[in-house]
Design a protein that fits this description.
Keywords: Hydrolase, Metal-binding, Metalloprotease, Protease, Zinc. The protein is built from 11 helices and 5 strands; from the N terminus they run H-H-H-H-H-H-H-E-E-H-E-H-E-E-H-H. It is an alpha+beta fold.
Length: 248
């Protein structure tokens, strides 16, 4: 097949993909077809089927491909810098859209949107990432910020930096979230110690900590508040503060 013949057939194939998306949405696509279209944004005159399949074979899932580092993507046969740019750009736009969609909404009423954003921002990452959602006095979401990345421990996440970020946003309340690369969403003892330290630091400045979410694979998460852990932390911290600063 010569180049002109391939371009003619390739154009027809991509037109069929566009029509299928417009008629049936993304649910009508396999993960390989999604990647084929995304890679095609970078190299519209090349066949991207094989590189899409190779990327899935290398990384194991669509989310893993989307979160892969540029240098890792370049190791996939056929994937060049224009393909990497297209993939990373579209992924970043999706994340920005989800982030902007939750801003200004009340945290309780935006739970599904928050879960969607966190699932996109945190799920299937190879390194731990710690986010804070900043809320006003009515618990409307002021914004979201990634504060730390790496191995998260009570000594690695600095309460003063968290509080500093909250004050800069004029936040009255906070919700924390971080991922477990293992996929397990059970809070670890270190997670509980970290949340207790952050609660105490925020409490001294009259900033409330409402919840801490641990995100695992495919956007699954465990909520400290729903699991009763937040109430236990709150009670223990308030008792500690009462002993340290008795009334009168």
């Amino acid at each position: 097949m010569d180049k002109k013949d391939w371009q003619r057939r390739g154009a027809g194939h991509r037109e069929r993909l566009r029509e299928r998306f417009l008629e049936n949405g993304l649910g009508a696509f396999t993960d390989a077809e999604i990647l084929e279209v995304l890679f095609g944004f970078g190299t519209p005159r090349q066949d991207c089927k094989d590189r899409a399949r190779a990327a899935l074979a290398r990384f194991g899932s669509l989310p893993a491909v989307l979160e892969a580092a540029p240098e890792e993507l370049r190791r996939v046969p056929g994937v060049g810098p224009k393909n990497v740019f297209a993939l990373r750009f579209v992924h970043a736009v999706a994340r920005k859209f989800l982030e902007r969609r939750i801003e200004g909404k009340t945290y309780v009423h935006a739970a599904a949107d928050v879960a969607a954003y966190l699932g996109h921002a945190l799920a299937d990452r190879k390194r731990e990432r710690f986010l804070a959602l900043f809320l006003d006095a009515r618990h409307a979401i002021l914004g979201v910020e990634t504060l730390f990345e790496g191995t998260l421990t009570a000594s690695a996440v600095y309460p003063r930096e968290v509080v500093k970020a909250a004050l800069a946003r004029h936040a009255a309340a906070l919700v924390f979230a971080h991922n477990h690369p293992s996929g397990n969403t059970d809070p670890s003892p270190e997670d509980i110690r970290l949340t207790r330290n952050l609660y105490l630091a925020a409490r001294l400045l009259d900033i409330r900590v409402l919840d801490h979410l641990v995100v695992g694979e495919a956007g699954r998460f465990t909520s400290f508040a729903e699991a009763g852990l937040m109430a236990d932390i709150r009670a223990a911290c308030e008792e500690m503060l009462a002993r340290a600063m008795p009334a009168g």
